[in-house]
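Key result, reporting period 2: structure in, sequence out.
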């Protein structure tokens, strides 16, 4: 499986504070690689995107991605606040 990162995802990932936060995100990425259909598919303006929700410390994070047969593209990472609005841009 080939994994690509969009610049929006890379910026947020680089700014994660602790190693524990990065480890939680890495674990979420591993789960997505093993089962790309794990996220919930979006409709309307965001059709084609999947969003996987997971917890980091008691904060819910969302990871948006797309996938085809052999390729996953990590699009965005963040909290729920304004997440979908920013994805539409």
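The corresponding designed sequence is given below.
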């Amino acid at each position: 499986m080939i994994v690509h990162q969009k610049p929006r995802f890379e910026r947020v990932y680089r700014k994660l504070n602790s190693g524990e936060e990065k480890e939680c995100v890495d674990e979420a990425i591993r789960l997505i690689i093993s089962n790309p259909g794990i996220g919930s598919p979006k409709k309307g303006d965001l059709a084609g995107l999947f969003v996987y929700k997971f917890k980091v410390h008691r904060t819910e994070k969302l990871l948006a991605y797309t996938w085809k047969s052999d390729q996953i593209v990590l699009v965005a990472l963040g909290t729920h606040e304004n997440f979908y609005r920013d994805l539409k841009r």
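DSSP finds three helices and five strands in the chain. The chain has one domain: 2-88. This case is discussed further under Risks and Mitigation.
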